[in-house]
Amino acid sequence: MVARKKHYRPPGKKKEGNAARYVTRSQAIKQLQVTLGFFRRLSILKGIFPREPKKKFKGNNHTYYHVKDVAFLQHEPLLDKFRDIRAYQKKIKKAEAKKNADLATLLRTREPTYKLDRLVRERYPKFVDALRDLDDCLTMVHLFAALPAVERAKIDVELIHNCRRLSHEWQAYVSRTYKLRKVFISVKGIYYQAEIEGQKITWLTPHAMQQVLPDDVNFSVMLTFLEFYETLLGFVNFRLYHSINVKYPPILDPQLEALASDLYALSRYIVSNSRTSTLEPEAASSSTSQQLEAQEKEMQADESELRLAQLQHQLPSNEPGALMHLMENAECEHEDDQDTKECRRLFKNMKFFLGREVPRESMLFVIPAFGGVVSWDGEAAPYKESDQSITHQIVDRPTQGHKYLSREYVQPQWIYDCINARIILPTEAYMVGRIPPPHLSPFVDNDAEGYIPDYAETIKRLQAAAKNEVLPMPGVGKEDLDDPQNLLVEGYISRAEANEAVKTKKKMATLEKQYHEELQRELQGAVMKKSKQGSEEDAKASEESVPDPKQIAEDIDTMSKLGMSRKKRGLLEAIEKRKERNTARISKLKERKKKLKSSEN
Amino acid sequence: MGASKKESVEVDKKKKNSKKNQPPKKEKHDTEESVLAQKLEDTATDYKELSADDDSEDYKSVGESEAGDGESSGDEGIHNTGSSEGLAIDGHSEDSEPDQGAEESDSSEDEVAPRNTVGDVPLEWYRDEKHIGYDIAGKKIKKKERQDKLDSFLANIDDSKNWRKIYDDYNDEEVELTKEETKLVRRMLKGKAPHADFDPYVPYVDWFKWEDAKHPLSNAPEPKSRFIPSKWEAKKVLGLVRAIRKGYIKFDKPKEEPRFYMLWGDDASSSEKTGHLSYIPAPKPNLPGHEESYNPSLEYIPTQEEINSYQLMDEEDRPKFIPKRFTSLRSIPAYENAVKDSFERCLDLYLCPRIRKKRINIDPESLKPKLPSRKDLRPYPATCYLEYRGHTDAVMSISTEASGQWIASGSSDGTVRLWEVETCRCIKVWEFGEIVQYVAWNPLPELPILAVTVGQDVFLLNSGLGNEEIQRKVKELLQVETPTAPVDSGNKVSGWSWLQDDEHEGIRLRHFKAVYSVEWHRKGDYFSTVMPAGDSKAILIHQLSKKFTQRHPFKLHGLPVSAVFHPTRSIFFVSTKKNVRVYDLLKQKLIKKLETGLREVSSISIHPAGDNVIVGSRDGKLCWFDMDLSSKPYKVLKCHPKDITNVAFHRSYPLFASCSDDCTAYVFHGTVYSDLNQNPLIVPLEILRGHAISNGRGVLDCKFHPRQPWLFTAGADSLIKLYCH
């Protein structure tokens, strides 16, 4: 028997409905007369994505594109350009196969290129649109900035340098204009959130470690994305720099760039003196290549700072004190929202010094973004460790040998927690050698979540206290008295002593907790007894007369569901399921917490 | 090779020239001096030839010089024209060769400018003139004053150096040879090489490659290609010219355009519509929660047991991220999935279909349909008021009497009981000893007859209610006349027989298969029985007054479940497991087929107005059919998790109920409007509980009170309950 077609359509009749409006991917490829790789590349660059037809006429395991989308691709000039390029590559190949090296080199010199700026404009007609979609772009560029160059995956050095440059430019802008809002150190990397033109832009930078390149990743797809992202970020940076009257791209001598730390000192010097002279490349030219190599590492960390200095430097330079002028200007700018002002003031009048082991790149980005001044343990640092005006030294090591009395020694997490809380937190919990308090995500709305971690509550109290301009809670104040941190500051005190102090404090705290718990238990017990009696009575009553109200409510619920359409019922069930899952999660957390507490006691 | 051949061609031409020149030369110079000069010249050229480049022609001339005869002047001419190096060495010799001056003037006389510029003309032309020619500035060179022959002779005799003096006719002067020159001359006179350092006996190097050639030279005619310009080269040049013209080869570097510029100028101006499909931005990746922190609160970290339990989970359910805790920032390792995560995001971006979904915070309450409040729909049965205890096993079926004063119940303990509704008193008990499947009261109040199905039999029992007249009438009816016996025997093939049952004081209607249910016609005379295993005779219609039985004349498609009469008209509903068929009994034809779409229909009930039907099924679904509307259910209510055992309409109130094996009975409000355009209103009112499960069965039957909004339910726990409003 001949298999009958599922939907018979008389010959000559046009398709209708979804079948006319959508095509599968293989159909689209056939229509465009391209290979799958081409199609993929084109759709990535054009931002064409599959759409979901209401009825999947070819089955579930097909990807459907809208015919208009396909037509959009078909009219893309880039398609022809790609074809040209491919034909050209064939020419080169042919020349090479015929051992016509001259022709091959001649052809290589004039390879056709293409530009993506039109596509950027087409996809993001407004600047805000581009900002809205910038998350993935930034994450990817920052990731590639941390990747090693691999020939096998066609990740060349130039690409990585470009990514690094773009990311530093972006960071310099964010830092310079105090747009950074939230920072979160996760296991995956460091999340930053900035707010630009009302758009919240979140991106992830990997930790500064050697990244592993997995084998099961199709790099050509990623590189196509990156190609577009690079262009996009370039234009976005241009626009942003333009908005603060700074020339883009920042003109940096490549040698100077390599010698970033030297340049940092130089530009700082220039800025602090008169800001009239221009950059002097000869300063760098004297350096040898060995130095270059040595300082290559330095460069990564310092570049953002360098850019910052550069930004300051490139201000209208005919006027002495341009930087100051700008600062005044900025202060005059009332368009700055409250948030920005707050952020700018957070680390004002604070001087930081980074230890060698601290992730410098992140710190150099973050601290200036909140109005702080920062230096590091390195050759070209703006000020040395011995500077007396340093207020905080950021240290991430088990013990700190020599200590200055005039400054506080804190772990890097303190900076991030301060930023997220928007207040200067007490430092005693972040002292050297201690396990810092939990680092909480600033992206979670604790109240909506239904579960508030302990530390979030303490931070909340501190925030409230800071707002009211009153000293922290009495309990906290008391703690401050026997705070080992204070003792440390006051005089030399051995580590053992400090530990002892900590232990006694802990003991006290646990005792206090026990007492509180007992109290609570007593209270609860009383209530429980009462409620038990009550419930028994209730039970009796219910047995006698009315079924318990729970049952009634349930009945009403089920009955109301009876009349619903299937779709709505499904929706409702999904909502209920989600709620249930949430509550289960929270209850689990609470249970764990209880267990932990009991094990502590 | 081509070039050298050309040279040789030129050389040949010059050879001819020099041959032309030479004969007059010899005639002219008869004097000693001229002979000497000639000799000098010859040897000089010989020498030069030897010192010239080692071409293939060299060995020939070397051989000649060895032979030592100076006559072969033709060859010498060649070599003179070839190059001037030899002349440069003996600086003066050029002066002594006036005949060749013209020829050589262009090439070899750069260092010493010739004084006379007349060229190669016979000097006798100037014999009578006062000058011998012109210098380079064009001025006449005067002849020297002629000495007397005698004087000169005397002077020559006196002069010891006279022998080395030579008169240069051309320039009209005497040249004195130096010692070196004389040495050269002497060596040449001896037939030796002029230069002392020259070794004529160097070992011979055979530069010629003797590849199949007998002779070093070929006398093949010169190929044409040597005479005409190369086509290939011309082509190449042409190609280059063309490439330049077309701009393939560019000499000026392309101007560097700035890579980035102000792409978004004014946002206000760029609000043009693309005319394309709307862009759906990809959802942003989820923001990290507390648990992703490098140092989360301790309660976020799962215990080891929990982590182990993840391994047992299905891969899809397994949490993708397990929180970890690092006590300091420096101890965080690199995240191994960084690239992979990014790649997966890329895949999501270009491969995932996107839909614009409105994610409003939906209040779950808003999803529930707006229904009239239950209070307005009262009265309806809500609470259990009475229980009828007495059966010892599951109550299979109950039936209410038309007046509403009595109910009858059949149980699997083999008894049928008659209860008074208000007092819960059991009035009467019939014992059958077999499971009572079904009981049904005659709908007429004046005929209190009870139909009971037990196994293969249907009993028509006299309930013993009512006054004497009624009793008499009933007893009359329940008398089976003997004449029907032969009819019975005749019908034995079809397998039913009307028998008098004395034990129960009624009629025993014997069937050939187990009877499942019995339903009365509204007028109380006819009743139908269903034998699911009875094939074509599964449904029988009996007439009580005539004790007559007939087969349902239509073919059944599937197993019959129940057969019901229409409450007002002569329409008959037969439900099989899948469908409900509606027949007109008067016209004897199928009116309608209701497609339930259910897996297994268990019960059916007709709305008292007759246009709506509810069907209960074993998959817990209740279908409401509007007969006027469609053959598909108007509404399907999935209310019970287990089988629906029975459904029932109230005769007067807009109520209907369903009972199920999950021990519940649902009461619904179901208003049917007389306006055909308005759909029936169905509102669930109450869930009635109270029965207990026994042997996996719950509530087995439910019936409404004929007058009051009360519901009787029969449970497998041997109880009958009355729910009142």
TrEMBL record, chain A:
Coiled coil: 78-105
Keyword Nucleotide-binding: no
GO biological process: maturation of 5.8S rRNA from tricistronic rRNA transcript (SSU-rRNA, 5.8S rRNA, LSU-rRNA); maturation of LSU-rRNA from tricistronic rRNA transcript (SSU-rRNA, 5.8S rRNA, LSU-rRNA)
UniProt cross-references to Pfam families, sorted A to Z: BRCT_2 (PF16589), Pescadillo_N (PF06732)
Segments forming domain BRCT: 342-432
Recorded superkingdom: Eukaryota
Start and end residues of each stretch annotated as Disordered: 280-299, 523-601
Basic residues bias (residue ranges): 590-601
Compositional bias (Basic and acidic residues): 533-543, 570-583
Cellular component aspect of the GO annotation: nucleoplasm; PeBoW complex; preribosome, large subunit precursor
Chief place of localization: nucleus
InterPro entries: BRCT_dom, BRCT_dom_sf, PES
Biased composition (Polar residues): 280-293
Localization annotation: Nucleus, Nucleolus; Nucleus, Nucleoplasm
GO molecular function, one term: ribonucleoprotein complex binding
Key words of the record: Coiled coil, Nucleus, Ribosome biogenesis, rRNA processing
Chain's role: Required for maturation of ribosomal RNAs and formation of the large ribosomal subunit.
PANTHER family for this protein: PESCADILLO - RELATED, PESCADILLO HOMOLOG
Family (UniProt): Belongs to the pescadillo family.
HAMAP family in alphabetical order: Pescadillo (MF_03028)
Protein name: Pescadillo homolog
Species name: Populus euphratica
Gene transcribed to yield this protein: LOC105115463
From TrEMBL, chain B:
Domain of life: Eukaryota
Keyword rRNA processing among record annotations: yes
Biased segments, Basic and acidic residues type: 1-13, 39-51
Gene name linked to the record: LOC105128384
GO cellular component: nucleoplasm; PeBoW complex; preribosome, large subunit precursor
Stretches with biased composition (Basic residues): 14-23
Sequence ranges assigned to domain BOP1 N-terminal in this UniProt record: 126-381
Species this protein is from: Populus euphratica
Listed SUPFAM superfamilies: WD40 repeat-like
Residue ranges, annotated region (Disordered): 1-124
Biased composition (Acidic residues): 96-111
Similarity remark: Belongs to the WD repeat BOP1/ERB1 family.
Name under which the protein is recorded: Ribosome biogenesis protein BOP1 homolog
Residue ranges crossing the lipid bilayer per the database entry: none
